[in-house]
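quick q for whoever's on today - can somebody do inverse folding on this one?? i tried earlier but teh output was garbage lol. tokens:
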């Protein structure tokens, strides 16, 4: 049984017992045994471990984990300390600088955001090495739909940052008028110039939080404790 160590355990307890999830679990056992799969098995649910349900005020929704060795560690767009930021993350840092003036940090680890209530969730939580979207359609989408549905029931405002087509599909689940959806293209070099760069989602999210009387996110990663 998955143990997350916070309020997600009670919220999602029944989800981990559903037939689709048990099938997904068997699929993952075979995949991890057959060859490199990312992130490491113990890191799959790090987004939920790092950010308790009660603390979530921003949801950053990605596609699936990085598929290169040593990159993914269970938080969307984040890489482990010492790993060079991939192109999508470089574009995120570029937008962060253009929006709020923060220069790119020395490493690409986004755990300081997660510890402030930013849920760094992918729509699919695992991937084969070198094969993006290789674990899509296996059940993860159903699982992350449940996570988003639970967040939609929150009675405090949540800002959803939906970047790219996979994330945009979750928008229809978010129906609570308390919440806010900021939607643009994926920060990948293939689409960043079609809307992501210049979107100012970091400052917009903080403006929404401030209007709701909630503390803003300190998006500055320079010198932040990991």
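ok took a stab at it. sequence:
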């Amino acid at each position: 049984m998955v143990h997350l160590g916070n309020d997600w355990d009670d919220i999602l307890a029944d989800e981990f017992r559903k037939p689709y999830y048990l099938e997904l679990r068997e699929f993952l056992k075979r995949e991890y045994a057959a060859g490199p799969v990312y992130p490491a098995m113990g890191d799959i649910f790090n987004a939920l471990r790092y950010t308790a349900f009660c603390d979530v005020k921003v949801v950053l929704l990605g596609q699936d984990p990085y598929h290169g060795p040593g990159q993914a560690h269970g938080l969307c767009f984040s890489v482990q300390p010492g790993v060079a930021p991939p192109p999508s993350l470089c574009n995120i840092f570029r937008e962060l600088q253009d929006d709020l003036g923060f220069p790119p940090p020395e490493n690409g680890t986004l755990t300081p955001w997660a510890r402030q209530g930013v849920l760094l969730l992918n729509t699919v939580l695992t991937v084969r090495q070198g094969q993006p979207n290789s674990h899509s359609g296996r059940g993860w989408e159903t699982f992350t739909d449940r996570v988003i549905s639970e967040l939609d029931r929150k009675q405090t405002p949540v800002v959803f940052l939906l970047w790219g087509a996979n994330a945009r599909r979750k928008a229809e689940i978010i129906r609570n008028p308390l919440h806010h959806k900021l939607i643009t293209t994926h920060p990948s070099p293939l689409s960043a110039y079609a809307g992501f760069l210049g979107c100012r989602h970091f400052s917009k999210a903080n403006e929404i939080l401030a209007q709701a009387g909630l503390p803003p996110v300190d998006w500055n990663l320079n010198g932040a404790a990991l």
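fwiw Residues 19-34 form the longest helix (16 residues). also Strands lie at 37-38, 58-62, 118-122, 127-128, 159-163, 180-184. so keep that in mind when u check it
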